[in-house]
UniProtKB/TrEMBL annotation:
Keyword Heme: no
Leader peptide range in chain numbering: 1-22
GO biological process terms on file: CAAX-box protein maturation
Key word Transmembrane helix present: yes
Protein name: CAAX prenyl protease 2/Lysostaphin resistance protein A-like domain-containing protein
Membrane spanning stretches: 32-49, 70-92, 98-117, 138-154, 160-180, 192-210, 235-255
InterPro entries found in the cross-reference section: Rce1/LyrA-like_dom
Boundaries of every CAAX prenyl protease 2/Lysostaphin resistance protein A-like domain copy: 105-196
Length: 278
């Protein structure tokens, strides 16, 4: 029941914010304002509903150190996407024709902030965290990653291949990031850094949502398995490899830090085992 209440609360903010942003399409300043407002309200609503349904402090969104954690995530996300673009450029045609649209990048900043925050709160803050309590880290990672990938089938130029890529490179990787850090700020920063680098800086298609107008005026062509085709670089094999690599690193960190939650059945058996006194 708490999963449903928390999910509905955050999803409601995401829906209202998304509708408001769509209503002012073309107005870059309002898009920025509404996007950032949606992100802030979503964080506040998540904190409120978690405190109300779980009677605890929302440690995964602790204010202390939040800025440093978001920055860390931003740098990882940007570096990951930049590495993917460089690799694609070696094999396919990725051309920078000049400067793009500063105002377009500003609008994307707001849009991507709203998307990154609401999606991380719903998928890692609610779904992964609560499913993990019942099934353990590994099963929760797979289940919520698959759901995250399936959600992207609703995008305009979506494909089954694109959804599979998103599940592996983003769904699994972002869940592993949360498992390693046990806070939502790093995955939020990583998610935003990746998306804004893609659309706001390198001006490529993001998750099948059409061309982006970012800081650079670019064009890209080549084999779909390399460039991602109509779905964008997130459908590229290079991105899948990068996502898998980061997932392995994050899960190694989670294991090293003792953050892996075992399967519930095993935990119960261990608790029920008789204690032998020598």
């Amino acid at each position: 029941m708490r999963l449903l209440k928390q999910l509905v609360a955050v999803a409601a903010v995401a829906f209202v914010g998304g509708q408001a942003i769509a209503a002012v399409e073309g107005n870059d300043a309002l898009t920025l304002l509404l996007g950032l407002s949606t992100a802030v309200v979503a964080v506040l609503v998540y904190g409120w509903v978690v405190r109300r349904t779980e009677r605890r402090s929302v440690t995964e969104l602790a204010r202390s150190g939040a800025g440093a954690r978001i920055t860390r995530g931003l740098l990882i996300g940007f570096a990951m996407f930049a590495a993917v673009i460089v690799n694609i450029a070696f094999v396919a045609d990725y051309d920078i024709d000049g400067l793009g649209s500063v105002t377009g990048a500003v609008a994307l900043l707001g849009f991507m902030a709203a998307a990154a925050v609401t999606e991380e709160l719903m998928f890692r803050g609610v779904l992964f965290r609560i499913v993990e309590e019942r099934t353990g880290t590994w099963i929760a990672l797979v289940l919520t990653g698959v759901v995250f990938g399936l959600m992207h089938l609703l995008n305009p130029d979506a494909s089954v291949w694109g959804a599979i890529c998103i599940a592996v490179e983003a769904g699994f990787m972002l869940a592993a990031c949360y498992a390693a850090t046990r806070n939502l700020w790093v995955p939020i920063g990583l998610h935003f850094g990746w998306n804004f680098a893609a659309g706001g800086i390198f001006s490529v298609v993001v998750s099948g949502n059409g061309d982006s107008e970012g800081l650079l005026d670019t064009s890209m062509s080549g084999p779909a398995l390399v460039t991602g085709g109509d779905f964008g670089p997130e459908g590229s094999l290079y991105t899948v490899v990068a996502g898998v690599a980061l997932t392995v690193v994050f899960m190694w960190l989670a294991h090293r830090r003792g953050h892996i939650v075992p399967r519930r059945r095993k935990a119960v058996i261990a608790q029920a085992a008789p204690v032998t006194v020598s």
